[in-house]
């Protein structure tokens, strides 16, 4: 198993000497945990080594290879520690060759190549790659390195093939980014008509067996020093992918021949004939998406200050705690608003993964983050010193809440506004902000232009505290501590809880939108018959800013507390208020609580008024009528603070996440306001007061 480690001053010769001294003439030495600790003490020249760190490292080397119980291959351990050395990839490749050449005959035979492939498979699993179809790709890659098709790989073939093979370098742990290194190349392994590798940055695509024969490296994504920032530079041309379009220089069609014809710029996406590419203007302006893009000349690397006396053990500990030694800094381009993109690849089936790759192509890959790899922290840290930037969240309402929580915890100097690209179903918050109920494959360039023309609005966020009564058994965990959309008790939460429970038990029955809707309809129908939350007013009390609500006059099966004018995928529970009826009071002039039915009739909702709307639900049948727009819920109150006390176990939900809660007291208070981006009018049909 290969792990990523910082560079240190141990030379290749020292590693090689110590290794061969330690296991002279033994092809496949195995060591147990005690032997592993002895190796570390000898190798690092220390008297003692932390037991917990030793155990963690030892477990990382254990794999499915047939070794003695509780042992690891010393050869793998030594190769792992070769990553600590300073030096060039060529030297490291030569060292790795000697490690895997068991018989020392100067060539790698098929069994030794299989051992290298196994090592790379373990590295891919460690990196979180999908390895289900990776082994054939690696076999093709290793076959291509055997240039003379002799069935063995010589040292010369190994070094020459490996130097141009980025996936191999990465999977062997030899492609380490240092200040003098080229920028990282982003590769995507896909299966189509054969195995191919596609660069997410420039879309250059090759067979797996051709990866080691690719041309010049992918376009750079940053410059090497701060001196180079701020200077607009020339186009970064990539051959092909012009699809018979017109040349932006001569306006003639770029004819497709048998080969790569024409060139396109990675940043501004302008297209030209090969002969026109070198003509003026040669400077790249980043095109129509200039406002969003972080061009290479806006990013430069900085080495974190380190104590020169730091021990190698400390370096290992720091790396295990994910403390990086090289960080990137941004020198913003004037009059632009760089876009920080977060994508949840699990949202919307495979939609998230496709959107991730498209944004990596349209923007700088360094400003697009996969939330499955470390969450939002790295992206927020990278952008934290910028004064004027935007965030785009690609995912559902839960993903948006995740990002808003991360922004709170990051203590940013500037709180950036957040836009939403809705993936999957529901997406009530995205609907209210005019971004729609779900992404349907629209051109992402158009969405980026909509973000450029969007308006900044504030959205209230609320803290919810659930205190279970004494002498009560602990119920399900409360899913969230913050309300962004809504909170509800009763009939709708009961349906959602049954749906959620069934989906967890039988996920195979919930693998399509149509099946989900049918199941939801079935649970709603059975809830109509059973009326499990009938006479809800007898099971709870509600106080708004200390004023009790009188629930005796209405027969309710559910209560909902609303922050936004959309619930359950577009239902307007509060209902629309005619513009002529609105009182027109500002949030400062509006009283802390309104419970008068006549005033509530002419009171509208607002995302930023620091108020919550409380409505009553009469039953599952009425919920269906609300969903179709035939009626609205019963308006009960508008308030800035709510306390709810329940007398029996009831189903509840926060922003679509249900749970069963024993008797408790619930306090809902204002937390803060998040800066959001509302799409321009015409982006979608609009909702309620946001048309």
TrEMBL record:
The UniProt record lists the keyword Kinase: yes
Keyword Cell division: no
Domain (DAGKc) ranges: 334-468
Gene3D superfamilies registered for this protein in UniProt: 2.60.200.40, 3.30.60.20, Diacylglycerol kinase alpha, EF-hand, Probable inorganic polyphosphate/atp-NAD kinase, domain 1
Enzyme class, broadest EC rank: transferase
An example Gene Ontology biological process: glycerolipid metabolic process
Catalysis performed (reactions): 1-octadecanoyl-2-(5Z,8Z,11Z,14Z-eicosatetraenoyl)-sn-glycerol + ATP = 1-octadecanoyl-2-(5Z,8Z,11Z,14Z-eicosatetraenoyl)-sn-glycero-3-phosphate + ADP + H(+); 1,2-dihexadecanoyl-sn-glycerol + ATP = 1,2-dihexadecanoyl-sn-glycero-3-phosphate + ADP + H(+); 1-O-hexadecyl-2-(9Z-octadecenoyl)-sn-glycerol + ATP = 1-O-hexadecyl-2-(9Z-octadecenoyl)-sn-glycero-3-phosphate + ADP + H(+); 1-hexadecanoyl-2-(9Z-octadecenoyl)-sn-glycerol + ATP = 1-hexadecanoyl-2-(9Z-octadecenoyl)-sn-glycero-3-phosphate + ADP + H(+)
Complex formation: Monomer.
PANTHER family: DIACYLGLYCEROL KINASE (PTHR11255), DIACYLGLYCEROL KINASE ALPHA (PTHR11255:SF38)
Name of the protein in its database record: Diacylglycerol kinase
UniProt organism field: Dicentrarchus labrax (European seabass)
């Amino acid at each position: 198993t290969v792990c990523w480690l910082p560079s240190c001053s141990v030379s290749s010769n020292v590693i090689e000497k110590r290794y061969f001294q330690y296991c002279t003439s033994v092809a496949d030495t195995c060591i147990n945990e005690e032997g592993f600790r002895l190796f570390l003490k000898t190798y690092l020249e220390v008297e003692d080594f932390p037991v917990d760190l030793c155990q963690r490292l030892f477990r990382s080397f254990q794999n499915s290879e047939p070794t003695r119980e509780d042992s690891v291959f010393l050869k793998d351990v030594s190769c792992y520690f070769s990553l600590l050395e300073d030096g060039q990839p060529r030297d490291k490749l030569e060292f790795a060759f000697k490690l895997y050449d068991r018989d020392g005959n100067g060539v790698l035979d098929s069994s030794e190549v299989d051992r290298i492939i196994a090592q790379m498979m373990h590295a891919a699993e460690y990196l979180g790659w999908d390895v289900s179809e990776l082994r054939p790709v690696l076999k093709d890659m290793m076959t291509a390195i055997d240039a003379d098709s002799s069935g063995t790989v010589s040292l010369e073939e190994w070094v020459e093939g490996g130097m141009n093979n980025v996936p191999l370098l990465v999977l062997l742990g030899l492609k380490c980014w240092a200040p003098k290194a080229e920028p990282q190349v982003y590769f995507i392994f896909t299966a189509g008509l054969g195995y191919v590798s596609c660069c997410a940055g420039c879309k250059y695509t090759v067979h797996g067996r051709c990866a080691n024969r690719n041309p010049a490296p992918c376009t750079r994504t940053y410059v090497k020093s701060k001196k180079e920032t701020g200077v607009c530079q020339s186009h970064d041309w990539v051959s092909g992918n012009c699809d018979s379009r017109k040349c932006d220089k001569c306006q003639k069609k770029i004819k497709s021949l048998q080969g790569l014809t024409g060139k396109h710029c990675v940043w501004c996406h302008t297209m030209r004939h090969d002969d026109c590419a070198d003509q003026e203007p040669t400077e790249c302006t980043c095109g129509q998406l200039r406002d969003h893009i972080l061009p290479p000349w806006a990013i430069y690397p900085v080495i974190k200050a380190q104590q020169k006396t730091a021990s190698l053990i400390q370096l290992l500990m720091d790396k295990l705690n994910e403390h990086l030694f090289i960080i990137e800094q941004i020198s913003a381009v004037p009059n632009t608003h760089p876009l920080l993109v977060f994508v949840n690849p699990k949202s919307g089936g495979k939609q998230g993964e496709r959107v991730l790759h498209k944004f990596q192509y349209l923007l700088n890959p360094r400003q697009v983050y996969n939330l499955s790899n470390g969450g939002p922290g790295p992206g927020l840290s990278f952008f934290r010193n910028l004064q004027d930037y935007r965030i785009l969240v690609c995912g559902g309402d839960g993903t948006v809440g995740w990002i808003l929580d991360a922004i709170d915890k990051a203590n940013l100097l500037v709180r950036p506004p957040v836009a939403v690209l809705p993936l999957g179903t529901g997406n009530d918050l995205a609907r209210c902000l005019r971004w729609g109920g779900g992404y349907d494959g629209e051109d992402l360039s158009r969405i980026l232009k909509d973000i450029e023309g969007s308006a900044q609005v504030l959205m209230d966020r609320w803290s919810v505290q659930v205190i279970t009564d004494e002498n009560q058994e602990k119920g399900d965990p409360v899913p969230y501590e913050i309300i962004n959309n809504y909170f509800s008790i009763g009939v709708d939460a009961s349906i959602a809880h049954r749906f959620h429970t069934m989906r967890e038990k039988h996920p195979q029955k919930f693998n399509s939108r149509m099946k989900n809707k049918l199941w939801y309809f079935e649970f709603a129908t059975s809830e109509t018959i059973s009326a499990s939350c009938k006479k809800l007013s007898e099971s709870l009390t509600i106080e708004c800013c200390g004023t009790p609500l009188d629930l005796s006059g209405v027969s309710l099966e559910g209560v909902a507390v609303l922050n936004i004018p959309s619930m359950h995928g577009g239902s307007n529970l509060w209902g629309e208020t005619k513009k002529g009826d609105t009182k027109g009071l500002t949030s400062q002039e509006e009283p802390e609580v309104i419970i008068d039915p006549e005033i509530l009739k002419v009171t509208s909702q607002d995302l930023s008024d620091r108020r919550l709307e409380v409505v009553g639900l009469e039953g599952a049948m009425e919920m269906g009528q609300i969903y179709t727009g035939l009626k609205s819920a019963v308006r009960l109150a508008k308030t800035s603070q709510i306390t709810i006390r329940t007398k029996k176990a009831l189903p509840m939900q926060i922003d679509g996440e249900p749970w069963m809660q024993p008797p408790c007291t619930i306090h809902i208070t204002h937390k803060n306001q998040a800066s959001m981006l509302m799409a321009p009018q015409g982006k979608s049909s609009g909702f309620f007061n946001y048309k």
